[in-house]
Recover the amino acids of this structure.
């Protein structure tokens, strides 16, 4: 499957886009996955219309988008490990599930990057899902309020929902969903109230009152009113996208940039959706190299042993003059530079993974991000021709105007990171 014929139309609301002209039941190639991921990060929520996915297809798509996340307190569907049913029977009288604003599983150490929801049985009316753009909500605040909130650390817990005495605990009778309350829900975890999106660098609120049960170092008498007032701001109409479901539709949202909640209005009708979560994103370390044939043009062709099906990619070798100039620079992002075969060799693999390269799951594309420009000083600058965007086409330029290539990050036989460069 390729990107030809695919159309991505913004919702015209605070966030969200509708994607047509793509069949997610087919195998998606690397270019299509990269395009979808870039659109997901830009629009926060993607709605794929007219799909014919089953649970196998939902799992394949989730794997392509980053792999399965942890899903506590839900029992998976029989025969599945990673798919759960969001179900409400037509005659069900229990309170609506997930009707309060939240971001999924923020009480975990590594909350999921996203969530996928596939329409199985859609009522003829009602059941919309609302999304609130938290990057937009933070950006709309006065600078003084931004600075105040950015200093706070939130305490997260699932106790109010999934502890035995919580909303979905022992007293929650007559519910069709397979929810598993547990004492484990009483655990707490802290995250910054305002975070930088790990893939785009955009700043926004992370979660809200509900899974946030307090503010570190602040008495509850102060924290609860602050969280209540903040939620009123986070969920203002100008930040909200209302998603209307259609039969066969799949939606995917970014838990790091939006809140969401369910709505009712379909009394007397059955509603079922199947859900997966996308695991937390982090820079990916690449395995050992396979054969590295040299082409007749003097370029190096590289593949990875772990994934032999991927196409060979070649890079232009630096000129002797460029190599000499690079050697004079001495370091890049704090790692010593060693040049060989026209490549920059960065010997500190951990440092390059954490501070220079963000390699998103399953893709061959090199993305430079999480660079502390102040710490690096003049060693690196953003290429103005790329608009300073963090994703998907990021190029960092050295003073001699050598631009880091957009391509695979690989490790040589000595275990060193090999960072290809191009003129």
């Amino acid at each position: 499957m390729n990107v030809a014929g695919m159309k991505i139309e913004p919702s015209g609301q605070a966030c969200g886009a509708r994607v047509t002209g793509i069949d997610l039941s087919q195998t998606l190639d690397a270019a299509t996955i990269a395009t979808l991921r870039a659109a997901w990060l830009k629009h926060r929520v993607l709605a794929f219309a007219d799909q014919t996915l089953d649970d196998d297809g939902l799992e394949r798509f989730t794997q392509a988008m980053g792999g399965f996340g942890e899903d506590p307190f839900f029992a998976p569907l029989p025969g599945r490990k990673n798919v759960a049913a969001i179900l409400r029977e037509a005659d069900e009288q229990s309170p609506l599930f997930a009707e309060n604003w939240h971001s999924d599983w923020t009480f975990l150490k590594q909350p999921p990057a996203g969530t996928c929801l596939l329409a199985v049985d859609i009522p003829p009316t009602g059941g919309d899902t609302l999304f609130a753009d938290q990057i937009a909500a933070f950006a709309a605040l006065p600078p003084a309020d931004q600075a105040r909130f950015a200093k706070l650390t939130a305490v997260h817990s699932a106790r109010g929902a999934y502890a035995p005495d919580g909303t979905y605990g022992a007293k929650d009778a007559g519910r069709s969903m397979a929810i598993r309350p547990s004492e484990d829900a009483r655990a707490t975890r802290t995250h910054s109230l305002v975070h930088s999106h790990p893939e785009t660098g955009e700043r926004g609120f992370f979660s809200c009152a509900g899974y946030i049960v307090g503010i570190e170092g602040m008495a509850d008498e102060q924290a609860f009113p602050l969280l209540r007032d903040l939620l009123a701001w986070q969920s203002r109409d100008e930040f909200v996208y209302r998603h209307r479901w259609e039969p066969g539709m799949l939606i995917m949202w970014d838990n790091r940039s939006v809140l969401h909640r369910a709505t009712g209005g379909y009394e007397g009708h059955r509603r079922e959706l199947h859900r997966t979560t996308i695991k937390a994103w982090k820079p990916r370390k690449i395995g050992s190299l396979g054969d590295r044939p040299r082409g007749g043009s003097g370029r190096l062709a590289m593949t990875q042993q772990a994934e032999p099906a991927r196409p060979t990619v070649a890079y232009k070798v630096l000129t002797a003059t460029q190599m000499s100039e690079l050697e004079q620079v001495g370091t890049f992002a704090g790692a010593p530079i060693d040049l060989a075969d026209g490549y920059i060799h960065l010997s500190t693999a951990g440092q390059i993974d954490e501070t220079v390269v963000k390699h998103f799951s399953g893709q061959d594309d090199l993305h430079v991000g999480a660079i502390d420009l102040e710490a690096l000083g003049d060693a690196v600058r953003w290429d103005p021709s790329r608009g300073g965007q963090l994703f998907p086409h990021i190029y960092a330029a050295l003073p001699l105007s050598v631009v880091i290539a957009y391509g695979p990050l690989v490790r040589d036989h000595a275990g060193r990171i090999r960072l290809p460069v191009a003129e």
Observations:
- The radius of gyration is 23 Å.
- Residues 300-422 form one domain.
- The first helix runs from residue 30 to 43.
